[in-house]
Amino acid sequence: MRMYGRYKTINTKKVRNILGVLLLLMLLPMVGYSQTEPKVDAKVDTLAIKIGEQIKYKITVEADSTDVVFFPEGQTFSPLETVEAIMADTLKNDDKVILQKIYSLTQFDSGSYTIPPQRIAINEQPFFTDSFQVKVADVVVDTTKQKMYDIKPLIEVERGTADMWLTALWILLGLIVVGGLVYWFFLRKKPLTEEEKVALLPPYDRALMELKKLENSKYLIQDEYKQYYSELTNIVRSYLEEDVHVSAMESTTSELITKLEMLRDAGELKLEEDTIQQFQKILQTADLVKFAKNKPATTIAEQDRKLVEEIVTKTHEGLPEPTEEDLLLDEEYLEELARKKQRKRIYWAAAIFAGIIVLGGIGSTVYFGTKKVRDTIFGYPTKDLLESEWVASSYGFPPIQIETPEVLVRQELELPKETEELIKELQAFSYGSYVGIFSVSTSSITFKEQKEDPQFDAVIGSTLANFEQLGLTNIITKQEEFVTQSGVKGLKTYGTGTLERPNGDSKRAKYNILTFGGKGFIQQVVITWEEDDEYAERIVDRILNSLDVKTQA
Question: Which ranges does the record mark as transmembrane (predicted)?
Fold first, then answer.
């Protein structure tokens, strides 16, 4: 090669040698890296088992001792089930480490299954193992030695009472708390206050105590004569009403004196004329103080209090001894008074309890809504279904695994002759009816001819035609793909319609038709419910989340 002008001539062979050296230098890091690349290998001890037997799946990883390795965890071998996982061995060789982990896998349905590739992360870099095809065979039963029996019929079992006991416990605790509050504030015998203790004293003792209290008051010191004489006359008048049984509080001075004189003349009260005259004089002084703003001397006021005390004592002594009949009447009066007080407490307690219930109901209605509170108190069919003890089971063959609020009951269906010629077996299970508040049904159909592609449209069209025969009109239909938790793909047909009832009424209904299939079989799940039923919507979501199918016929 020659270059002209200012450039020198370069030998071609020399250029090739330089490029070869550069290429070798570029490849050196790649060669070094390939020598330290981790190795992942997977093996199984067998590719054919019987139902319930186990496969030993061993993963071997050869990596650097500083590498971080993560093995598969959980049920990553679906459709096979992981029984256990064991870290088998760890071998070290210079700066290398060999890790081995063994998984025990099994399957309880016959058929051909593929163990999917497993992901092993080494320093967060994914490595995948090969997949394996495994055959699971039925266990051969010698019917000449082992008798065969019909499938046992469905039996009714008692509903679990765990939730009922929990609810009853919370209600009991609430009643205990409310009862404790009612007892503490209304029914228990509270310590008496000073006023109550004074009120329970006999009239005579209470009058003397109140007069003593008046003596120690500061009314006279503070020049409050009106207040002093008002309390003085009230004490003596109250005593006369309770002990002498004369209406004294509403009587004028002259009327009260006249009543006392009449009792004296009748022999029901032994009082001297001087005592009555002294009492009349004190009442007249009190009237002047209260109404004419008269102000007697302090010594007179104090003397009047002492005279009133003497009058009370003489009046008490002048009363005749109570007869046995009087004592019984007093005892009955006290008992009736106690009963009235008890009834008053009970009325208050009942009123407060009713108030709590009403306020709680109003608060619950405002917070949760009228419908939810009404459904909680009086019950609602779909709410009861949602809160019941659900049942998880498999129905038909190929099996449909589903969780429902009630056990689905096997249905015996009569098929037309032209349909019987195509169908090998039809297994149907259901709860409720399409025209009811809620229904769910499953069906597994196996055909005599093993076609490659199942005819979904025909089966879905037959279900929709059945809806129309039952009175569902204005049917709106939509379709989308549906994938179960295990990755099985199917077709979801859903929509709404108007259900005409025999009484002329109509309601809006919703439906879901989930269709799956494979070579020679079709599986279908149909759910119907009323529109705007929030409990039914939650039931449907839970059913769909639990739904899984086996597509190995």
Answer: 164-187, 346-368
Query: Nearest CA to 53 among 115, 110, 103, 106?
Result: 106
Judge contact between 308 and 334, C-beta under 8 A: no
DSSP structural state of residue 146: S
* DSSP tally for the chain: helices H, then strands E: 14, 20
Peptide bond into 296 cis (omega under 30): no
Question: By C-alpha distance, which of 431, 391, 425 is closest to 410?
Answer: 431
Nearest to 494 by CA among 507, 477, 481, 471: 477
User: Which residue type does 34 have?
Assistant: S
Answer whether 522's CB lies under 8 Å from 505's CB: no
pTM of this structure = 0.42
Residue range 516-527: mean pLDDT, rounded: 87
H or E stretch at 523: strand 521-530
Q: Is the peptide bond before 79 cis (omega within 30 degrees of 0)?
A: yes
**Closest to 230 measured CA to CA, from 304, 179, 180, 174:** 304
**Residue 489 carries which side chain, given as an amino acid letter?**
K
Rounded Cα–Cα distance for residues 141 and 149 (Å): 13
Stretch 489-494: mean pLDDT, rounded? 91
Q: Is the pLDDT of residue 227 over 90?
A: yes
For the CA atoms of 142, 144, 150, 152, the dihedral, rounded to the nearest 10 degrees, stands at -70
What are 414's strand-pairing partners?
none
For the chain, the distance separating the N- and C-terminal CA atoms, rounded to the nearest angstrom, is 74
Q: What is the pLDDT of residues 442-484, one digit of tens each?
A: 988 887 776 656 778 888 888 888 888 888 888 888 989 998 8
Q: How does strand 132-137 pair with strand 438-447? A: unpaired
Three-class HEC string of 276-311: HHHHHHHHHHHHHHHHCCCCCCHHHHHHHHHHHHHH
Using DSSP's 3-state secondary structure scheme, residue 533 falls into coil
Q: What whole-number distance in Å separates Cα of residue 48 and Cα of residue 131?
A: 15
CA angle, 307 then 313 then 315, to 5°: 100
Residues 441, 473, 477: CA angle, nearest 5 degrees: 65
